[in-house]
């Protein structure tokens, strides 16, 4: 806090409602060398606090704050890809996030040979980078909340087709991948809703692309979600299980 208060240029340059520009959080100016130095210091402090040897294998999150407010500074615009995020219409920040991870791993990678850096692949940093190569020690956690919440990734729906295109590109990299989803419709928690088709299609898809694990935020809306919750649990335990057989067993038992 002291460093940011003494040098507001370390905060993102954010456009205000009246069109003016203001340096403010929660996002930071990742192209600023002082910010990079703070990230580096933080990672070193984490190792020291936990008394980890430098060869300790760990992933530390360096993703942006949730929500918007990304920098529109000249430095960030020049470092970015120039692409517009297809789902939000805002400037895409995927390459900016990859650049941050690459620079930190260039500074720390040799000293900490098993350090990985991670972030959520969603919002305006949900794509595959087009300007910077992906360092093999970047870990991504995929969240599919920007795309249709009523269809699986294998269905011919425009937003899911685009998402599938992103996954195909990440599937070609050796990077560790995880999936973080929801068992409920983020837009509405009480109307009749099912993820049966989504889990049946998507969980095997993630398994085929070597996603290492799944952790979902879960709501106890049993009246609408019990069948898909049961299917999710069964398929996460045995990805080769037959979804129709699981549903049949649930309905008989219910």
Descriptive account of the structure:
- The chain has 254 residues and is of the alpha/beta class.
- Helices cover 39% and strands 16% of the residues.
- The protein is built from 8 helices and 7 strands, in the order αββαβααββαβαβαα.
- The strands form 2 sheets. Strands 3-4-5-6-7 form a 5-stranded parallel beta sheet. Strands 1-2 form a two-stranded antiparallel sheet.
- Strand 6, helix 6 and strand 7 form a beta-alpha-beta unit.
- Helix 6 packs parallel to helix 7 and helix 7 crosses helix 8.
- The protein starts with a helix and ends with a helix.
- The mean pLDDT is 96.
Distance between the termini: 54 Å
Q: Describe the main β-sheet briefly.
A: 5 strands, parallel
Strand content: 15-25%
Low-confidence stretches: none
Shape: globular
Share of helix, binned: 25-40%
SSE run: HEEHEHHEEHEHEHH
Quaternary form: single chain
Strand order within the widest sheet?
3-4-5-6-7
**Could you say which structural class the secondary elements and strand pairing correspond to?**
alpha/beta
Work out the number of β strands.
7
The Rg value, from CA coordinates, equals: 20 Å
- pLDDT averaged over residues: 96
* Number of helices, counting only DSSP H or I runs of 4 residues or more: 8
Concise synopsis of the structure shown:
39% of the residues lie in helices and 16% in strands. By secondary structure, it is of the alpha/beta class.
């Amino acid at each position: 806090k002291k460093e940011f208060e003494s040098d507001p240029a370390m905060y993102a340059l954010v456009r205000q409602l009246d069109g003016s520009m203001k340096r403010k959080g929660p996002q930071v100016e990742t192209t600023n060398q002082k910010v990079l130095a703070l990230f580096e210091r933080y990672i070193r402090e984490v190792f020291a606090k936990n008394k980890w040897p430098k060869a300790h294998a760990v992933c530390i999150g360096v993703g942006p704050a949730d929500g918007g407010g990304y920098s529109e500074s000249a430095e960030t615009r020049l470092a970015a890809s120039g692409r517009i995020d297809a789902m939000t219409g805002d400037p895409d920040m995927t390459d900016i996030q990859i650049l941050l991870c690459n620079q930190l791993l260039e500074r720390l990678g040799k000293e900490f040979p098993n350090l990985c850096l991670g972030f959520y692949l969603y919002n305006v940093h949900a794509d595959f980078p087009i300007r910077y190569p992906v360092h093999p020690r970047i870990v991504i956690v995929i969240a599919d909340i920007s795309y249709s919440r009523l269809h699986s990734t294998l269905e011919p729906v425009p937003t899911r087709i685009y998402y599938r295109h992103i996954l195909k590109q990440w599937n070609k990299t050796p990077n560790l991948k995880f999936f973080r989803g929801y068992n409920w419709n983020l837009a509405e928690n009480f109307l009749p809703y099912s993820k049966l088709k989504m889990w049946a299609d998507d969980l095997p898809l993630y398994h085929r692309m070597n996603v290492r694990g799944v952790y979902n935020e879960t709501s106890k809306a049993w009246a609408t979600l019990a069948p898909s919750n049961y299917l999710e649990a069964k398929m996460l335990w045995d990805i080769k299980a037959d979804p129709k057989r699981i549903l049949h067993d649930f309905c008989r038992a219910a």
